[in-house]
Model the fold of this input.
Amino acid sequence: MNSSDVTIFVIVAFAMAIVVLLSRNNIPPRFKRGLALFSVFMVVAAFALIIYSFFP
Done:
């Protein structure tokens, strides 16, 4: 797996999580849970890819 792809995914995942956290009052209630779950899933996947990249 290309390391630049992993780096971009990690940056996007954390940026989405920050945006969801900072704008939680402006997000309609219908979308809050879905966006929160999706951003948590992306952050967990980013951590998994970071750990995976340590092993050759």
